[in-house]
Amino acid sequence: MYSYELHKIKEAELLHRAERNRVLEQLLRDRRAARRSGHQEDERTVSSFRNRFARAA
């Protein structure tokens, strides 16, 4: 009985990991597709401190 319960716990853990991996892979695929299609709403250019002022002579 004890080994069966351990087996079921391990099975549930593996199923959970597999589902999490599927979700993460789908998220990465969606992000890559969004980048390829030109939708980069989340990414903006960050101005550095150096670019704010003109260079001294």
SSE blueprint:
Elements: H1 2-37
Characteristic terms for this protein:
1 helix; 57 residues; mainly alpha
Structural commentary:
It contains one helix and no strands. The N and C termini lie far apart (82 Å). The model has no long low-confidence stretch (mean pLDDT 83). It has one helix spanning 2-37. The longest helix has 36 residues, at 2-37. The protein has 57 residues and is mainly alpha-helical. Helices cover 63% and strands 0% of the residues.
Q: What is the CA-atom radius of gyration, in angstroms?
A: 24 Å
Structural class given helices, strands, pairing? mainly alpha
DSSP strand content: under 5%
Estimate the mean pLDDT confidence. 83
Helix content: 55-70%
Give a quick rundown of the structure.
The protein is mainly α and 57 residues long. Helices cover 63% and strands 0% of the residues. The chain contains 1 helix and no strands.
